[in-house]
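Format notes (please read before filing issues)

Several people have asked whether sequences and C-alpha cells are stored in separate files. They are not. Every record keeps both together, in the order shown below: the sequence lines, then the C-alpha cell lines. Line labels are part of the format and must not be stripped during preprocessing.
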Amino acid sequence: MPSQMIDVHSHIYPPTYLSLLRSRIEVPYLLDPSDGSLPRLIILPSDDNPALPPNQRGRPVDASYSSTSEKLKFMDAHNIRTSVVSLANPWLDFLSPSEGNDWAQRVNDELERISQSSGGRLYAFGTLPLSAPSSTVVDEIHRMNRLPHIKGVIIGTSGLGQGLDDAALDPIHHALQETRTLIFLHPHYGLPSSVFGPRADEYGHVLPLSLGFPMETTIAFTRMFLSGVFDRFPHLKVLIAHAGGSVPFLQGRINSCVDHERCYYTADGSQIGGPKRSLQEVLETNVWLDAVVYSETGVSAAVEVVGKERVLFGTDHPFFPPLEAQAKGWKSVSTNVDAVRGAFGVNEQAVDGVLGRNAASLLGLPID
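Then the structure lines:
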C-alpha cells in the first residue's frame, strides 16, 4: 500500500456524543448491560428488540468507536496517512429544535480539538443542527467554516425532516455553496422494513446495510437533482458515500425517465419544467464518490460517471471489523484497496489519485 493514503470515510463517536446517547432511553441511545459487557449502540428501531437480552441488542461499542489513539493505531496498521473523521449516524437529527445547536457546537468543537491534537493525521467533517431553525443552521455553517481542521459537513438524507429536495433547505444550500463547504451525503434511515420481508431478522444487518443504505442514498440524491437543487446552486459540492449508492449503475435509467417525463408538477398542481442541467453534467461537476464499494466493478462504475479524479478512498472504520479475534488486518480495508488497484491495473497514477491525491486536492490536505 502507498504511504500517502487518505481515508475520507472514517467515523467516530466522540465522548461528547456518547454522553448524549447515554443520557437517552429511546432510539438512538447507548445501553449499558448490567452484566458489565460492552455498551450496546442502539441507533435503529430494529436494534431495540425487547425479545433479545440487553447484551445482544444493537452492536457492541468498544474503544475503536470513540478513541483517537485507537483510530491512529488502525491507520498505522493499514498504512493510512490521514483520515477525515465524521460523526457517525444518526448525527443530531433526533434532537429538539432547542437542543440541536448547542450539541452541534459541542461536537464540532470536540472534532476540531481531536484533529488539532493528532499531529496532522486527522481532519473532520462537521455536523449540523438540522432540527433547529434554518437561520441557526446557517450560523453554524459559518462558525464551523472558521475551524481550520473542519473540511466539510456530513448530513443524512432527511434534511429538515422532509428530504433533501425540500425548498426550505435553500438557505442552507446557499450557505454551503457560499462557504465552499463540501457535503458528505451519508445514509441512515434505509428503506421501510416491510421491503425486506418477514424473515429479515434472520439475516442480521445484511439487507438494510447492503441494499437499504445504497438505495436510500440513491433516492435522496436523485430527489435533489429532480428538484433543481443543482440548478439553483450550481457550485454546490457533494461527496456521496458508498460510491454513490446505485447512482453509477442507474444514471442512464434516471436520464431516460427524465427525458420521457411529459410534465413535472408542484404539490399545488402547478406545472414546472423539471431539472435544467443534465444528470451527467451534475455528476461531472458537482459530485465526488467515495470508493467504499468493495469491488472492481463498483470502482469502475464510479469512475465512469464522475471521472477518476473524483473518486476517493474510504474505509468506513470502525464499522465492519474482522470477526476473527487474531486477524492481522481488516478485510473491509484490503478489499477496498484491492478493488481500486484492480480497477486501474497498471495505471499507478490513477491508483495513487484515488487512494490519496484526489482527496488532498479536493480538501486541501497535505501530502508528500
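For reference, the curators noted about this record: The radius of gyration is 20 Å. Residues 12 and 87 are 5 Å apart (CA to CA).
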